[in-house]
Amino acid sequence: MKLLILDAGHCLSLALAREANRRTDTELVIEAGMDLEASRLAEISPDAVLVPPLVQPMDIEPAAVTAHAAAVERCLASCRELGVPLVWAVSDQLYEDGFDGPIDEHVRPEPRDEGLRQLMAVGQQIRDLHPRHLIIRLGPLFALEGSGAWLGSMLDSLVGGDELSAAQDVIFCPTSADAAALALIGMLQQIQCGAESWGVYHLAGTEPVSAFAFASMVRTQLVTRFEGLGQSLVLGELKALDHHHGQPLRRVLNCRRVLQVFGVHQKPWRLEVGRMLDAWCQAYRPSDQLLDRCGDNA
């Protein structure tokens, strides 16, 4: 199976590359940007095109959201022209106001934000015009590297001694980029073998948590690991934010359908964070900057 991945520097693109490198049944072609002309698509002739999500579309410049939506529309036009399946991953922030219970796929987001409405319009075009599609709604992605790598930037801030702010009244299910990549390739391999199970799927980690609780767990685990290495490093402090006046916003995706159709089990985010922290500490253990700071605090 050959996949064409757009936006090479995205944390999900990097995770897909790592997963494909461990397999012999998947070939990736990765484009640097988001533009995809029909001529280039015809030259590569992939089995599917995969577009990584725009990370935190509610929190970035409106122009960036508009540009992403326009790029996906152009990609859709090229895929339709050549009959190539399209896989588009989107942020759970499309559910701007959250939902009381776990959110099923049939619950259409109805955002007020203009940028989110643009993304919804693109998704509707994909559903209406291109039957061979997957729209994958993801929880907040975390990884160690790549654009949108929430965990990586969090660790940089903590070891840099910076104060880190996080909402304690927004509840969601963090999603490992590595776990999402594994699931996506598995889903596409099944489709390649004849499972014509196109449509919309939710994919997220288990155990709903607030952004502040997630960051607190990361900070605590990082302290524990440094202590285990015999190092004492003063980490940045955490600040809890409240945005919803005592009524937490829940944005929890129900992921039963992806299990029922493809057999994909959601990976506990705590285990994925632990694995990534182990890798991060191993990679940074000989770092001169960290050793200097540890020595200063010894």
UniProtKB/TrEMBL annotation:
Instruction: State what protein this is by name.
Output: dTDP-4-dehydrorhamnose reductase
Q: Which residues form the RmlD-like substrate binding domain?
A: 63-279
Q: Which organism is it from?
A: Onishia taeanensis
